[in-house]
Amino acid sequence: LALPPGFVALAPDQGLFDPLTQGKGTAVFTSCAGRQKSWMRQDQTMSIFTDRLIEALRGAANQPGETTVKVSHLMNHLGKTVSLSAR
């Protein structure tokens, strides 16, 4: 599938998510960087990113039976669903 203008397909570096499985810290998620655009849902109530973040916080990326939402779940869900939804 072709990406919308301004989107770039990137593969994460090997081991990028390993530190997220240990310790405590702060995670920052943004809908876009630099001169990229953040896309709104068709109903204009929120951005696609915010919609997918809420979905992930509600456990959309959890395995069946899991009740804890992990940062890695959020990252995986956002990485997979935001660009697909923007298309």
Quote the distance from N terminus to C terminus.
9 Å
Secondary structure: helix percent? 25-40%
- Describe the main β-sheet briefly: none
Task: Average the pLDDT over all residues and give the rounded result.
Answer: 83
Strand-and-helix sequence, N→C? HH
- Subunit arrangement of the protein: single chain
Structural class: mainly alpha
User: Count of helices?
Assistant: 2
Give the C-alpha Rg: 14 Å
The geometry reads as: globular
Low-confidence stretches: none
The portion of residues forming beta strands comes to under 5%
The total beta strand count reads 0
Give the SSE map.
Layout: H1 48-57, H2 71-86
Commentary on this structure:
This protein is mostly helical and 87 residues long. The chain has 2 helices and no strands. It is globular, with a radius of gyration of 14 Å. The chain starts with 47 loop residues before the first helix and ends with a helix. 10% of the residues are buried. The mean pLDDT is 83.
